[in-house]
Write a structure and sequence with these properties.
seven-stranded mixed beta sheet, alpha/beta, single chain, Metallo-beta-lactamase, Chain A
Length: 275
């Protein structure tokens, strides 16, 4: 969506400090693709499958808990989200190890800054967006496409998305890689694009949190279903970014578009599933 996060620009962070984060991301990215592929091959070779937990908080917001207990909060649009259950709008309940923000639009950046200030958690996003938030250096984790960051037993890979993001550079998707070689891909807001083939080749997503919202802003359920058929081979597909606002696709629209797809798992806001 085109609305902007209503956060005033604070003084810019030290460029040396943020450039250090960006350099770290580039260095880790060089090793990241090979590491992910090696982990995936290890998992395919018969490594023990370890469950991770996913809680849908409504719209594009999720909390992911890794097998080792690392908590990652993604696109935490909560307090003003009509799809978020009331119990999950209490921001004090969240103690994430990191907050991932795909882009600056209000329905994704949402409560990220407030949760970061209360919990001390770092916020991960594009260098441009993160530098606009006025966070302390230790919480300002800015990167770009190809960057990789590690939190506990999870590696977070920054991948492309086809959308917009103002203020704050370009939009992102996120791939989380776990210790058993399995991966989770949060598409962010996007339309189908050819480089999804590279995301599949490099990261081989086990679970996809898939934008299906349609309307004026993103790919619709039919296009999202095409993206999966054309580019991906996941174990599970979790649709998101639908039924929050009148302009978006309904659950019935989503089910109709994926009617023959047995891997589809439609969650309810507030629901947790293990994968």
């Amino acid at each position: 969506m085109r609305e902007r996060l209503n956060v005033p620009y604070a003084r810019r962070k030290s460029m040396n400090s943020l450039n250090a984060w960006a350099s770290l991301g580039l260095v880790m990215a060089l090793a990241g693709s090979s590491a992910v592929q090696a982990q995936t091959k290890q998992g395919e070779a018969g490594g023990a499958k370890k469950e991770f937990k996913v809680t849908w908080l409504g719209h594009a917001a999720f909390e992911v808990v890794s097998p080792g207990g690392t908590r990652l909060l993604i696109d935490p649009f909560l307090t003003k989200n009509p799809a978020t259950p009331e119990a999950f709008k209490n921001l004090s309940r969240y103690k994430p190890d990191a907050i991932l923000v795909s882009h600056s639009h209000f329905d994704h950046s949402g409560d990220a800054l407030e949760i970061a200030k209360a919990s001390g958690a770092p916020v991960v996003g594009t260098f441009d967006f993160i530098s606009s938030l006025g966070l302390p250096d230790k919480q300002a984790v800015g990167g770009n496409v190809g960057g990789t960051f590690a939190f506990g037993d999870v590696k977070v890979h920054l991948v492309p998305a086809m959308h917009s993001s103002e203020p704050g550079g370009r939009p992102l998707g996120f791939v989380l890689s776990f210790s058993d070689g399995r991966t989770l891909y949060h598409t962010g807001d996007t339309w189908i694009f050819g480089d999804m083939a590279l995301i599949q080749e490099i990261y081989r997503p086990s679970v996809i949190l898939l934008n299906v919202g349609g309307g004026p802003y993103t790919q619709d359920p039919g296009t999202a279903a095409l993206a999966v058929r054309k580019y991906f081979s996941p174990e599970a597909i979790v649709p998101m970014h639908f039924a929050t606002f009148p302009a978006l696709a309904s659950e019935a629209d989503v089910r109709a578009a994926f009617k023959d797809e047995r891997r589809l798992q439609v969650m309810k806001p507030g629901e947790t599933r293990s994968f």
